[in-house]
Amino acid sequence: MTSQIVVIGGGLAGSEAAWQVAKRGIPVILYEMRPTANTPAHASDKLAELVCSNSFGSEDILNASGILKEEMRRLDSLIVKTADMCRVPAGSALAVDREKFSGHITETLEAHPHVMVRREEVTQIPTDRISIIASGPLTSDRLANSIKELTLAQHLAFFDAISPIVDAETIEYETVFRASRYGKGGADYLNCPMEKDEYDRFYDALIASEKVALKDFENLAYFEGCIPVEVMAERGRETLLFGPMKPVGLVNPQTNGMSHAVVQLRQENKYGSSYNMVGFQTKLTYSEQRRVFRMIPGLEKAEFLRYGSVHRNTFINAPALMRDTLQVKMNGAIFFAGQLTGVEGYLDSAATGLIAGINAARGFEGKPLVRLPETTAHGSLIAHITQSDPHNFQPMNTNFGLFPPLPMKVREKDQKRRMIGKRALEDLEKWMMQSRVS
Fold first, then answer.
1. Residues of the domain holding 42
2. CA-closest candidate to residue 131, choices 21, 12, 11
3. In sequence order, what are the residues at sequence separation of 6 or more whose Cβ sits closer than 8 angstroms to the Cβ of residue 174?
4. pTM for this one?
5. 8 Å CB contact between 73 and 67
6. End of a domain among 262, 278, 309?
7. What percentage of the chain exceeds 90 in pLDDT?
8. I need a surface site. Which of 7, 124, 150, 158 has the fewest CB within 10 A?
9. Is 325 exposed, middle or buried (0-12, 13-18, 19+ CB in 10 A)?
10. pLDDT tens track for 381-417
11. CA angle 416-409-375, nearest 5°?
């Protein structure tokens, strides 16, 4: 290994990773290809440029995003510290002056004595030094090819069509029934049965619903297995009945017969606290997802831990390829961070950069690498991207469905979330003292 750590990508994850390495007195080279090579989404050459919203989400501890922010503050996150400095009025959300924010991040890292910022495109992953790959969803084609060679992946850049995830506690269990198709594999799915009149109303609402428009540069084709449900519906009224809503092989014990249509819910995590709507990838707006999908029997009061979305994305199959230290399994000197790992959102990306930076620095110094408790927001997010089923892996942001359940049953939602947040921060403090991470 050489005497520096390399970070590839000057977005939120890469900037955070570089900061975490440099603050520990270790030289770091931060590569950012802009302005030498630009992307269709960026408007400047600043580090950590916010290309979409200027909001980092809620600060309320009753929101999983609020817990993540508070953990990052305690771990001395450059991203959150700068966001606090550059905030603009936004109610309970942390929103920033985007120009001031990216400008301050750029000035801080360029002025740091242990950081060298290089404005050039990296086309090959370095193998002679510890490296953190944080090139984001708009990774250049040549670097993407290098990542594909390293990870033996067939695809990296595509339209990422993901399904909504529902809070298990908000499902109407007296309406749904447990079963697997043709009884194979046990009663592993929750099934939402629909009669013909219910299906017709749902279909008409789905066809007429408002969709999110794709950006001009998102010009890739869908994988046939990831077609949005509303696009499939446009092929004909009966199409869904031969696709994600097919009822064959599912006998409703309440009627002892087969329904006209069925929506299946698959357990999303090992705790059974959240369920994925199988085959319901969608580009409906969030408000339309709430309205239309609550027409499904059993989901009338559903709360969505993650909404479905469709956008250009680049990510690896992290559960198959990564350790829970964010190292690549086949090469411990290489770390991944940011959206490449399969996380969604500004803060989630920066959080993985934070942990990758800490572990890369510890590896450089010959110290044991660290793993955060799954009861923390960081730990639960990393557990998702490294321990999920690699055959059904989809990107995720921090949400309460990822946290381990409390040891006791708590019915009141706000009290439950407050207790989860309190436990997370207490466990983080204990972990920081035990692992000597500051």
1. 5-156+315-435
2. 21
3. none
4. 0.78
5. no
6. 309
7. 65
8. 124
9. buried
10. 999 999 998 888 888 889 999 999 999 999 899 999 9
11. 55
